[in-house]
Design brief:
Porin; 16-stranded antiparallel β-barrel; 25 strands; globular
């Protein structure tokens, strides 16, 4: 009897497992769900000699502008060399899928989270689990794609909505702190936005149109949503794709709130801020692309930016400096107008010794529009990148990347520079 019951139990378990498997398979076919991810791990050597106001391992680690002292210069951060585990490429995991609902239309979703592979820490803004993208929408072969949620800005190349990065620069958004992309040149505000609407048109030959708008809800003043006290962000762009050719262009803009503090702590007594972000709208125009010559691929970008709060990212992030007296004041409001800047970059990659060699060079000039008294307002910066990637399989590669950064600015006593070398491994699943 015990044997019979045991056999019956095993058969029932097998049947239940088969039913569950069939149900999951049917559900998967209906929803077409995919689990995906990217792991990047390695070692980084970095040496920095930066301004005290720049972000990164040697910077202040705040969004506040550097203070121009009575001598007309910002303070030096000093030199520092570090060896770190991990790289500048954020590891990610996510879930994406779609469901056909008829007439060439389907519902789509995309959930993506970033983390640091060396310690498993969630990477990104605050407590957002899916900081890199959290979106749902409808896609039609006739009318295009419409999505809602949090996703990357059009002027990036990340996620499902960015149109630049690796398409216009051999290093994409940038490997590490010094090499390539928006980590060197200008950023308008954030790489991603909440409460966003994104539209992608159908393809007209190789031509496609893109548009984004963010309501930029801030829970701290949610009752004022839709008012002049809340920032708004929008972008429009177009891409053209051919067999050997790609071209992208975009304009994005931040409609700043009329009054907004600029990353500073208020006076404990009065609650007032000494520096207020300018109400003047900031905008950026970006054009970039590549051409595949078969033997090598050539990349190029050009940017113009107006009223941007900062230029660069991570260790190369320079917030437009202000006078120390203005930053310390609690009796007046001082406008933070930001930079008027332009940047260009070019790069190439080609096959060699079973792998791919990547090279890039970039240059930018900027004018600090803040009132800095007699101190000069001009800045110029450049960077160089060199890397080699060798595939171990279709999904796994090892690489070595080196980057160099240099900057000369009127508010610096001396030129500043930084360089780094990264050795790592990437795996996609």
């Amino acid at each position: 009897m015990r044997t019979i019951m045991k056999n019956l139990s095993l058969r029932l378990t097998s049947v239940a497992a088969a039913i569950c498997a069939a149900g999951f398979a049917q559900s998967a076919m209906a929803a077409d769900i995919t689990f995906f991810g990217f792991l990047d791990q390695g070692l980084t050597y970095r040496h920095e000699d930066l301004n005290a106001g720049m972000r990164g391992p040697q910077g202040q680690g705040s969004w506040a502008p550097a203070a121009i002292g009575s001598d007309g210069y910002v303070a030096a951060a000093g030199s520092k060399s570090t060896v770190e585990q991990g790289t500048g490429n954020v590891s990610t995991w996510g879930i994406k899928g779609s469901e056909e609902i008829g007439d060439g239309t389907k519902v789509i979703f995309h959930l993506e989270s970033g983390f640091l592979a060396d310690d498993g820490t969630i990477y990104g803004s605050g407590n957002k689990i899916f900081e890199r993208e959290s979106s749902v929408g409808i896609e039609s072969t006739t009318y295009g794609q419409l999505k809602f949620g949090r996703f990357p800005a059009l002027s990036t190349g990340s996620g499902t909505t960015g149109i630049f990065n690796s398409r216009v620069n051999p290093f994409g958004a940038g490997w590490g702190n010094m090499t390539g992309g928006w980590k060197f040149a200008g950023t308008l505000a954030n790489a991603r936005y909440d409460n966003m609407i994104n539209y992608i048109s159908p393809k007209f030959g190789g031509l496609q149109f893109h548009a984004q708008y963010s309501f930029k809800n801030n829970s701290s003043d949610a009752e004022e949503e839709g008012s002049h006290k809340t920032d708004r962000w929008w972008a429009v762009g177009a891409t053209y794709t051919a067999e050997q050719f790609f071209l992208a262009a975009a304009v994005d803009c931040v409609n700043y709130a009329n009054r907004q503090s600029y990353g500073l702590n208020p006076n404990a007594t009065t609650g007032r801020f000494g520096a207020i972000r300018s109400a003047e709208d900031a905008y950026k125009v970006t054009v970039g692309g590549h051409y595949d010559f078969q033997a090598f691929k050539l990349y190029g970008t050009a940017q113009y930016m107006k009223n941007i709060p900062w230029i660069g990212g991570y260790s190369t992030k320079e917030v437009a400096p202000m006078l120390a007296t203005d930053l310390a004041s609690t009796n007046k409001e001082v406008s933070q107008k930001g930079f008027d800047a332009w940047a260009v970059s070019t790069g190439v990659d080609f096959r060699a010794a079973g792998g791919t060699v990547k090279m890039s060079v970039a240059y930018a000039q900027a004018e600090n529009q803040n009132d800095t008294g007699a101190t000069g307002k001009d800045m110029q910066r450049a960077n160089l990148g060199l890397g080699y990637i060798y595939p171990l399989s279709k999904r796994t590669s090892v690489y070595a990347v080196g980057g160099y950064f240099w900057q000369d600015a009127d508010w610096q006593k001396d030129d500043i520079s930084a360089h780094e070398v990264i050795l790592g491994m990437m795996h996609r699943f």
